[in-house]
Amino acid sequence: MASTSASRSSGGVSGRIRTAASTLYSDNQSLIAEIRKALNMMKEVAIDLERDNQSQMVKEIENAAVELSGKYEQSTHFSTAIHSVADRYQLGPELTNFKKLFDDEIVNLKANSSSVPENHPIIRQFREAIWESMKKRRNEVLPASFVVCPPLALHIAMG
């Protein structure tokens, strides 16, 4: 009988931990989605600034986007760690040091991650969008003949 109540108790604790972890995971996923929206908004603002030839402001937004993408990556690691720790948790005779479990899991996730904020796919998309905007703006400024074949256009203009 004692073993039955002990197993119920451990199932209850594990269940409550999984429920709490699920709630934290869900809340963190909402935060991750908001960070992604903010990064997309920053990209759109940077494109507008690029069209207005505000390259210094574009660079400042890019730097902020790199920093925010680092936070995005940290949040993703934390979310994965929450899920992983909750899945592996088992009630034991000693108190559980959850901080150490999370820290160890995050260290493992970072070690297995090849992502550096400057090289994150979100930042690559950001830079590509700015580059496309820059190319488009430059093509609009130059006459079509210069874009297609600059030496021929120069020869015609001087001819």
Automatic annotation (TrEMBL):
Q: In which pathway does it act?
A: Protein modification; protein sumoylation
Location comes to: Nucleus
Matching entries from InterPro entries are given as: Nse2(Mms21)
Coiled coil ranges: none
The alphabetized list of GO BP terms reads: double-strand break repair via homologous recombination; protein sumoylation
Q: Which GO terms describe its molecular function?
A: SUMO ligase activity
Which keywords does the record carry?
Nucleus, Transferase, Ubl conjugation pathway
Which top-rank group of organisms is this from?
A: Eukaryota
Q: Name one GO cellular component term.
A: nucleus
Annotated TM spans: none
Q: What is this protein called?
A: Uncharacterized protein
